[in-house]
């Protein structure tokens, strides 16, 4: 059954050798750095950005798992931990210090925890922790965000949907990450001619932005079950009309992929009515944000979902889709599996190290098979563990080189 998890993370959607750049193929991740590695070992620089709330807890667990799985495959990691978000605001007064960005940019791959918290909720916009995420996404140009949502047999009962609806769900949401209403101009809050305050944002997509995310989605669908559903609001929004037109035009280049379109309100409904109808979904930044949270609940918990954000060159950004959960931060209650699975995506998509990635995926399945559960995915008859213990169990499974069988 390991397959369910693996289908989601098998591809390199940018369609290049993982870890290499399309524009500059010589940019192998360890071109220079390999020289410093021990004989027979490959060395990678990994930027760790723990961030806020439960971020540091889940990153510390995932780092150990990454290190262990890597070392069994002859990989050495040079970790550099840097502050971002609220942690950076508290330290130096900005959400993304230059040094943190530089470390991320120069790394081979970035593993991020979570960003944000009540403490900074009333900050002025440019001093909000979330700005760190937006700067990272924009300046690393990681426009393609892959969010797999797979219902694992071990966790069907944790789903909020009925077993027969949830069982077998295996979809990939391809979210556009560096455009749309998140970044569109004009935007702001101002006072209009009647003296009333108005807030406004702009949903903006250039044709090339739609084309490049659509290509990633077609490539992704082609390597999965060959079905792509493009989600938009083309009955209302002009940006969506262009979106639908461009995606439709590209379909002729992918005759093996069956393309459908769906309005986002219907997609939100279909996701809980019959989620198995979806294979690959491609959508804009804000719809992808919303639908991926919805999809996570089908899988049992938002604490299970990893993500990969990729561009055409440079390091990828890998992070759980959950937030910083300040209500449980520091209590050893967080589910580290989404971050551990993000580390697996980092190995596979970021570094092209599929074997090490599979070690992590198998170890997660094995740990679930043994009945270990954090609170968010707990059901009676299982063993309730905290974040650290869950991490230790995954480490044990990595060590025992178990291939999960269900
Ligand atoms: C996500 C998050 C972010 C987003 C927040 C934290 C700004 O919800 O990655 O889905 O909206 O993109
Ligand atoms: Mg979100």
From TrEMBL:
Keywords: Amino-acid biosynthesis, Branched-chain amino acid biosynthesis, Leucine biosynthesis, Magnesium, Manganese, Metal-binding, NAD, Oxidoreductase. Binds 1 Mg(2+) or Mn(2+) ion per subunit. Residues 45-394 form the Isopropylmalate dehydrogenase-like domain. It comes from the Eukaryota. GO terms for biological process: L-leucine biosynthetic process. It catalyses: (2R,3S)-3-isopropylmalate + NAD(+) = 4-methyl-2-oxopentanoate + CO2 + NADH. InterPro entries: IsoCit/isopropylmalate_DH_CS, IsoPropMal-DH-like_dom, Isopropylmalate_DH. Its EC number is 1.1.1.85. SMART domains: Iso_dh. Pathway: Amino-acid biosynthesis; L-leucine biosynthesis; L-leucine from 3-methyl-2-oxobutanoate: step 3/4. One of its GO terms (molecular function) is magnesium ion binding. Its cofactor is Mn(2+); Mg(2+). NCBIfam families: leuB. Belongs to the isocitrate and isopropylmalate dehydrogenases family. Catalyzes the oxidation of 3-carboxy-2-hydroxy-4-methylpentanoate (3-isopropylmalate) to 3-carboxy-4-methyl-2-oxopentanoate. The product decarboxylates to 4-methyl-2 oxopentanoate. Homodimer. This is 3-isopropylmalate dehydrogenase.
